[in-house]
């Protein structure tokens, strides 16, 4: 959706399709009809934005086949859908039965990660609306944190330099600008905005910047205004914002029976306490039982708070939306299918209802309609 902030700034709002499992072109087109079109209709929107996720094999195939890219563009246009941003964090199999640490591989020490990201940029330039100023691709913040010796840091930096060169070449060839946004995440080489500044220092910040995932920001216990100021002072742009809320609990001991329902086998749910205790998954936090409060990397629906005694980090999300300067906002709740029983959708129509509810909530936050 194309919106305007209260001060008149134009922004794009989309939802990320990594919540859906399709990993080939027919499956991706099919999910447009199953989910995206019903979401657009529920919102009564002329055009709905998608933060498209393309697994590496289909991204490579599309990058090599101009007619296939044009076909995808026609299918999007015919359904009132548009794409200005791609999610390039998961490489493939993001909705597999077990994902956990696999989502961080291949990392930015590898040519495979570089090739995938440039494939996405090549695809995106043909999907961008004709009047779009630029596109964005989000990606992981280099790698999972261990091991990370100097040799791997140097290898990743070499890939980032080659990425910037590749993006510049794409812009020269096509006249379209695509920027890549590195997404700080708990447990990664860059978990905080301070680490993101270090990661991107000396790179081409006309091409490279940060994807600010607001659930991750909350789990790092960062103040949104401080984080945004830190990035701006360092000259690092916020290329993309992932609008997401983390799970929060003030008293983990009292809430244990409810928290146990969120410990599930597919995704990592890194848990951080206000005192700085770090656990790399919720089941580890439940075993170690550090004092609360905790924030848990479990993306919860924006418009539907979890049942007490749990809460969500939506107050921090609102603070961040008020101070961040960005034009691409992507709702990224990919965890609908692993919510506790009774909270997860039981049909495609139910999932479309949930996604539409999140987008309506975010639209109101961005435009000031909630005030």
Automatic annotation (TrEMBL):
Pfam families: AP_endonuc_2. Residues 63-244 form the Xylose isomerase-like TIM barrel domain. PANTHER family: HYDROXYPYRUVATE ISOMERASE, XYLOSE ISOMERASE. This is Metabolite traffic protein EboE. It comes from Actinoplanes sichuanensis.
């Amino acid at each position: 959706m194309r919106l305007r902030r209260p001060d008149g700034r134009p922004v794009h709002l989309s939802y990320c399709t990594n919540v859906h499992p399709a990993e080939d072109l027919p499956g991706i087109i099919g999910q447009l009809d199953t989910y995206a079109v019903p979401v657009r209709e529920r919102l009564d929107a002329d055009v709905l934005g998608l933060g498209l996720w393309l697994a590496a094999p289909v991204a490579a195939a599309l990058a090599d086949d101009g007619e296939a890219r044009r076909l995808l563009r026609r299918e999007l246009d015919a359904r009132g859908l548009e794409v200005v941003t791609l999610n390039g964090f998961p490489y493939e199999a993001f909705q597999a039965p077990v994902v956990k640490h696999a989502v961080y591989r291949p990392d930015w020490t590898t040519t495979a990660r570089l090739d995938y990201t440039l494939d996405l940029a090549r695809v995106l330039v043909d999907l961008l609306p004709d009047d779009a100023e630029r596109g964005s691709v989000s990606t992981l913040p280099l790698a999972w944190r261990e091991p990370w010796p100097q040799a791997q840091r140097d290898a990743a930096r070499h890939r980032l330099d080659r990425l910037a060169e590749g993006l510049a070449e794409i812009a020269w060839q096509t006249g379209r600008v695509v920027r890549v946004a590195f997404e700080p995440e708990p447990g990664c080489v860059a978990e905080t905005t301070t680490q993101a500044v270090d990661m991107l220092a000396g790179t081409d910040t006309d091409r490279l910047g940060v994807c600010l995932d607001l659930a991750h920001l909350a789990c790092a216990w960062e103040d949104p205004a401080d984080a945004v100021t830190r990035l701006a002072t360092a000259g690092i742009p916020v290329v993309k914002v992932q609008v997401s809320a983390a799970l929060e609990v003030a008293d983990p001991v009292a809430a244990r029976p409810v928290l146990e329902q969120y410990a599930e086998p597919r995704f990592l749910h890194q848990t951080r306490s206000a005192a700085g205790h770090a656990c790399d998954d919720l089941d580890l936090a439940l075993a170690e039982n550090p004092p609360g409060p905790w924030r848990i990397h479990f993306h919860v629906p924006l418009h539907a708070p979890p049942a007490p005694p749990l809460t969500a980090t939506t107050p921090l999300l609102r603070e961040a939306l008020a101070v961040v300067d960005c034009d691409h906002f992507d709702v990224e709740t990919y965890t609908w299918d692993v919510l506790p029983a009774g909270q997860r959708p039981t049909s495609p129509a139910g999932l479309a209802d949930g996604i539409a509810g999140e987008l309506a909530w975010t639209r109101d936050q961005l435009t000031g309609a909630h005030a």
